[in-house]
Each structure stands twice: as structure tokens, then as C-alpha cells.
Amino acid sequence: VPERVLIVDDHKGFRQLARRLAEEVGFDVVGEAATAADALLEERRLRPDIVLLDIQLPDLDGFAVASALSSVSAAPIVVLVSTRDASDYGPRIHRCGAIGFITKAELSSASLAALLRG
Amino acid sequence: MTAVQRRAFQTIVLVVPALVAFVELQHFWLPTFDRPAIIALDDLLPGSAFAVAGLIAWSRRPRNPVGVLMICIGFGLLIGIPGLRGGSSPLADTLDLVFGGGWTLVLFVIGFLWAVALLHLLLVFPGGLFVSRLDRALVGLLYLAVPLGGLIPAFVTFNSFQGTTGIDAYYNAAGLSAATAFVVYGLCLVLGSGLIIRRWVLAGPARRRSMSPVMWSLIPIWLAFMPSQLLPIVANGPIATLWQQFVAASPLFLVVLPAGFLIAMLRSDYAMSSVGDLVVKLSAGLLPEQLQPALAKTLRDPSLEVVYWLPTLGWFADLDGKPVSLPAADSLRAVTVLGDPANPVAALVYDSSLRQEAHLVNTAAAAVRLVLENARLQVQLRAQLDEVQQSRARLVEAADSERRRVERDLHDGAQQQLVTLLLSLQLAKTEALQRSDPNTALMLDGSIESLRQALGELRTLARGLHPTILAEAGLVPAIRSLAERCPIRVEVIGELDRIEPRLETALYFVVAEAITNAVKHSRGQRICVELRRRSGWATVDVSDDGVGGADRSRGSGLVGLSDRVAAVGGRLNVQSNQLHGTSLHAEVPCA
């Protein structure tokens, strides 16, 4: 059974690309969300295994969403993505409950698969 | 009044008591009159004391009616008191002998009038003018009513002054008694005391100080008048006897009163002489910050404030350059604006009771005029410096928030678009490879590589504008992140909790610039960054083991940093030499 993925980002173009990259390596993208509020609703509705979460969202930031997601029962795996580097954010990346971080420029089928399965 | 006229008046004032004294003492010495010495003293001393005190007061303050009023009271006492004794006075007898009868009655009426004049004096002291219409009306009424009340019954009974040779005859005919005099005096005393005590209660500290000698001198008179009726109830035996002697000597206590008035007047002279002290201090050199205490001491008003007009800013300010608004004219504070009202130098703000001593205030203000000008320049400089500091802080803050905005725009716009483009190119490359089109894939690879470099440069640019991590995680993580990207080894020591963003930003840019300079110029092997917080200051020290040569006067980098640190109230210190490399110390105040 392929793992089910929810993509959260306020840029439609990025969501579409991320969907193609994820589907290429065999993930099942079950939904997309553009805001933190939508992300939390969709997570409850779809119960995905993985959430690909942008840090810069129009309402809350990705760290807050990740913290909220890590406290639900049967919490999904959260992967943070951002245009910025991990070094731009400091220790919050490791404290918010996410398992990892990918810079958008480095996002590829291979890096995604490596982070999730490796 | 010319000097000659004044001299003539002064002579008269002195001659009259002398004449009266001569007459009185003639009778005292002549064997036909059997009068105890104490009574002669009673008759002479209070009036003479008032006349002499009045003369001194009048010569010191020619335009103030207080002196003349005191002289009148003195005359009234000299003439009137003997009449009150119930018998004929030596003076009246003499006048009767020379000018015909009836003088006892005239002197008797004058004997009432001096009490009204005393009430008048109490109400107008020290300014010489009535403070309220009520006071003026009351005194005016008494001036009219007392002689009328005394003289009309005399006319009715005797049709003329002729024939009323003895005061006892007058008393009997008019149905009056010596107690009437006591009642009139008592009335004036109670009214006057009530009004003056009320004024005392309402007065400010400076006004009270000027009133206090008079208040003290009134006390024995109150004691002498008040309890004589209560005496049998409250005391008997030796105390009562003592008390009766005290009351019997009560006219003598009137000597204390002119002394009280005179002391109050001379104290005001003393105040003028303290202006002299002020001038001496000024000639010795008075600093602007010593001006307000010196003036407060001179004018005896601890609440006095000196505020300075700042023409370039358009408001009054205190010595620190902080804006001050002048109190309303009708409040408990009074204001004297110094200099041309259209373009003042300064203003004195003081207790409203000092309005009575406008001359003193103006004299003191004139004395300090030059120091005031200097102080005003200093205040203006401080206020302008304050303004400049604030505007510099605002400029730096505005620049910082602009950098933050540009960084965010880059991130949300260009970076985002380019990243999406990069990912699309990568997908295209994957598809080209799947379609076995290596040429296209190779071309795409080249584009991807250029785009990646462009993105990297854009990220560096954005980070240089305003590092996200500074707001996200604070100064220490931001510096650690800086250290990780640095081509030479950077050691970060110490901890610093989160402080105000503007302070974090200032210190961050100091460290970033110092590291950049060290990498570019020092030729050193390692850099050490140390962060500390102690007693209200956050400090950073950046040192390298390079060849030194950093100079604040060369290159705008260090000057810019120094400005940035100063804008948040901090200090920057750079030491640089060949032996020990460059070390830079920055500190900013944080609560």
C-alpha cells in the first residue's frame, strides 16, 4: 500500500511540482492545503501518513502546524520545506516535531525518498 | 514726594511723640498728679513704638502705605490710650487748657480709630493693598461707623463739644461705659484675627514665611484679650493673680506688634540682600545646574523652577532639555517670563505667594540674566542632541524594517518563482532522460546549475539584508549560523537570552561585519566571538589572531557600525595591532 501524502504550501505552482515529484517515487498524494488552518482540517479529514509542510504560510508558521500535528493521535510524519536554508531557522526545526527538513531547491524524488525511507 | 518733603514729614513724625511724651511726663513729674510710672509707660510705649517702626518701614518702602498706616496707628495710640482709662488724660487736659473743652471726647474717638487702623494694617500687610473687596468694605465701614457711633451721641446730648470736660460725664450721658471700648477693640481683634488666620491657612510657604513675625507678635495680644472673662472659671489663687497682672500690662504688649511688622519688613530687606549674595556667587562663576537651587534659595521658594525657551524647537524645556508646559496664570503657581515676551530667554515658575514680592523676583532674575543665556544655550544643545539621537534611532529602525521588508519580498517573490522554475527544469531533465534525449538533458543540466548558483547568491543577498534566524531564534543561533558558513574557524562562547530586536540587530551586524573584515583582511586562522550580559549591558567581543590594521578612520565599515551601536545608546571600541590582531568590543544597554 503506497504511503499517503498531504502537501501544504501557499504556492500552487510548488504544490503541483511537489505532487509530481512525490507521485514519481510512488507516494499517493491525497490532498493539498494552502494555509495552516486548511492543513489542520485536511489532516483530520484525510489522515495522511506524511505531511510535506512549508514553513512560510500566510496564517501560522510551519513550526506551529508541525507542533499541532505531532500532538494528535496516530500523528503523521512531518517533513518541513522552505525556500530558505535550515541554517536560516536554527534550533526550531528540530524542536517542532518534524522528522526532517528539505530546502525547496534540493527537493527531488531522490531526496524525498531518502529522507522518508532512509 | 521730594527729599525735602520727606525729611520734613519724618521730623514731624518724630516730634509729635516727643511732644506727647513731654506733656505726659510733665504730668507724671508734677506733684499734683499722682500716677504710677507703669501707666505713663503704657501710654507712651506702644504708640511711640508704632510711630518709629512705621517711620523705618516708610523710609524703606516709600510707595507702600504700610509705613504711613503704622505711623497713624502710633499717633492714635499716643492720643487714644490715656482716654480709655476712664479719667481725663494729661494730653486732653493740656489741650482743654489751651484750646477750650471737649478734647477728651475727640481723643476718645481717636482711641477707637487706631484699632480700626490696626485691623486695616493686618489686612493689607505686606503688600499695602486690600486683597479682597470684602476686606476693603469691612474696614471702610468701621472707619465710618466708629467715629459716628462715638460722636453723634455726644452731639445729641450736649449739642456741642463744649462742656464735656470729663470722659466720665460723657459715658454717663451717652449710656456708654469703658466696656464699650473693650467691645470695639475685641470686635476688631476677632475680625482681624479671623481673617488673618484664614489667610495664613490658605497661604503658600513663601507667603507664610513673610507673615510669620506678625503672627507671632499677635499671640500675646490674643492671650491678653481673650480669657479675661473666663479667668474666674479656669483659674484662681496665684495663677489668677499673675494672669491679672499680665492682662493689666496688655497695652504694653502692643509694643511687640510693631516689632513684628518691622521684622517682617526687614526680612524682606534681608531677601534683597540675599540677591546680593546671589550676585557674589555669580561673579565667582555659577554653573547652569546651580542656577535653579541658587534662585530658589534667594527667593526662599524651594518649589521654584527655571525653564528655558528654545526658539528653534518652539517650547520651554527644563535643564535636561525635556519639554515643560507653563502652568495656567490663575493656578497656585506664578510665572515670570524673562526677556522680550515675543522672544523670551527663560521663565521662572514659582509659588503664587511670591507675587507679593515681584520686585525681588525681577531683581534676582535680572542678576542671573547672563547665566540664564548660557544655560539656555546648554539646554538648547541638550534638547537638540536628544532630538538628533531620537531621529538617528528612528532612521536606523526605519532602515532595518526596510531591509526586513526587502528580504521578505525576495523570499516570497523571486526566490519562490526561481525555486519552482528549478524544480520544473529538473522534472524536464528526468523526462528528457526517459525519452533518451541526452542532448536536451545536458542543456537542462547547465541551466539547472546556473539557476542553482543564482538562487544561492540570492539567498546570500537576502541573508545579508536581514537574517531570518535573528528574528526566529535570536542572536546566539544567528551568530552560530554565521560561524558555520564562515571559511575560517569561528568559536562562539557565552550565552545571551533574547533581548530587544533592535539591540539584537545592532549586535548581529557588528559581529557579521567584524567576521567579514577578519576573513578579508586579517590573514588570521581563527576568530573568537564572546557574548555576555552583565549589569544592564549586553556585550559582544570579536577577536582574531590576524595582523591587525583595522582603523576606524579608514573605511566606512567600522564608522557605520559605530553609528549603528550609538543609535541604540551603545558603545563600540576597536583595538588593532600586529601582535594581538584585531579585537572589537560592542556593548548596548538592555534592561
Walk me through this protein's architecture.
The complex is a heterodimer of chains A (118) and B (591). Chain A has 118 residues and is of the alpha/beta class. Chain A contains five helices and five strands, in the order βαβαβαβαβα. Chain A has a five-stranded parallel beta sheet, sandwiched between helices. Chain A is globular, with a radius of gyration of 13 Å. In chain A, 41% of the residues are buried. Chain B is an alpha+beta fold and 591 residues long. Helix content of chain B is 67%, strand content 10%. In chain B, the strands form two sheets. Chain B has a five-stranded antiparallel beta sheet with strand order 3-2-1-5-4, covered by helices on one side. Classes of the chains: A alpha/beta (118), B alpha+beta (591). Chains A and B meet through helix 1 of A and helix 16, helix 17, helix 18 and helix 19 of B.
